[in-house]
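Support request, please re-run this one:
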Amino acid sequence: MDFNLTLTYDYRNNLWIAKCDDFAVTAEDLTELDKKIANELKKKGYKGKVKLRMQFDYYTIPEWMRQFHPHYFDRIMEIDV
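Re-run finished. Output below.
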């Protein structure tokens, strides 16, 4: 099963955010975010291997900083739920 998420960073609250449609998870670091995503998927009834595609929303980077970061990053990973 594949699951597509948008990944953003809230600079004011120092939180990573992974979201799509009716799904949103926040955490202070990416390791914690991955664990919370797995827990939320379990709650929603997902089982087995889930392939996560997290595309970073480039427009969440402050405009003044974009010139130094022509791209940020995307993540693809598999987790067992």
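The chain has a mean pLDDT of 86. The two ends are 11 Å apart (CA to CA).
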